[in-house]
Write a structure and sequence with these properties.
Layout lengths: L4 H21 L4 E5 L2 E4 H17 L4 E4 L21 E8 L1 H5 L6 E7 L5 E8 L4 E6 L3 E4 L2 E3 L11 E5 L11 H11 L2 E3 L4 H9 L5 E5 L3 H13 L3 E5 L13 E5 L2 H9 L1 H9 L1
Parallel strand pairs: 3-4, 10-11, 10-12
Antiparallel strand pairs: 1-2, 4-5, 5-6, 6-7, 7-8, 8-9, 12-14, 13-14
Helix pairs in contact: 1-2, 4-8, 5-6
Length: 278
């Protein structure tokens, strides 16, 4: 299936613009899905807009949104040659907690996933900074039309690490008490922005040097992981979809501009595994 990339960018940018307009006006309701996990009426409205637009443009594809209550496993599989094997995976507002507290750091995220649940296209739009990031598998990554790819392999102690910590109810929340001190001692600085797709986009753009996240969902990382890989970065996806392959049950994502930071992140894995096993 051929995708009209300029047309797709226009749709995602419009969705992000709608989120920004609602954010600026403050006209939305909020409720808590789970402890520390917020959702707003703006999330549902932006997701509905994306579903309508993408379904009209590509009627044979499938759609998975964060607010839809489904998972990749629930979507019927088709042959790799069938357009129905392609699925749009959408996070209408990544960074909802920032959004509802008036912090202008959030984005709209869209990934196109193939029959093997691998991203073939990803778009991340930050409406507050008017920044768009996108990548196409095997073709490269771009930021506002500029090609990305000049990653720097810095030592960990000279690098910035973006971290996504689990929700308070996560079974591995306590395990991170062992991991975080190790990360603090290994990296030059740690940032927790609250918008993990932007963390990965900023890594691809050279603003961050490494990324670590735990207990993440597909819409959290599919677009960003493709950006990192297409920009020349390193990315490891440990049991994102097949958790049984990970004896600790921890879905861990590690990404870095170069091998030095990735090696430092991998050296910290044992801290999580050992603590989670206790």
């Amino acid at each position: 299936m051929s995708v009209d990339l300029p047309g797709l960018l226009k749709v995602v940018q419009e969705a992000a613009s709608r989120a920004k307009q609602t954010f600026n006006q403050g006209e939305f309701a909020v409720h808590e899905k789970a402890k520390g996990d917020w959702v707003s009426t703006a999330d549902a409205e932006v997701e509905a807009f994306l579903k309508k637009e993408l379904s009209e443009l590509y009627p044979q594809t499938q759609f998975l949104g964060e607010e839809g209550g489904l998972s990749l496993a629930t979507i019927p599989q088709a042959s790799a040659q069938d357009p129905a094997s392609l699925t749009w995976v959408v996070d209408p507002i990544d960074g909802t907690a920032n959004f509802v507290r008036g912090i202008a750091h959030f984005c709209c995220v869209v990934a196109l996933v193939d029959a093997n649940q691998e991203p073939v296209l990803g778009v991340i739009v930050d409406p507050c900074r008017e920044e768009s990031f996108w990548a196409v598998k095997g073709q490269g990554a771009w930021f506002n039309g500029r090609a990305l790819g000049a990653t720097i392999d810095r030592p960990a102690m000279e690098s910035l690490l973006a971290v996504v910590t689990p929700k308070p109810t996560s079974p591995i929340a306590n395990a991170l008490q062992s991991w975080l001190p190790g990360a603090v001692q290994s990296f030059g600085g740690i940032r927790r922005s609250g918008a993990m797709a932007l963390d990965l986009a900023w890594l691809a753009a050279g603003r961050m040097d490494a990324f670590a996240g735990f207990n993440l969902d597909p819409w959290d990382v599919l677009a960003g992981s493709l950006l990192v890989r297409e920009a020349g970065g390193q990315y490891q996806d440990q049991a994102l979809r097949t958790v049984q392959n990970n004896p600790t049950g921890v879905r861990r994502i590690a990404a870095a501009a170069g091998h030095q930071c990735l090696d430092a992140l991998c050296a910290l894995d044992g801290l999580v595994s050992n603590a989670a096993a206790r």
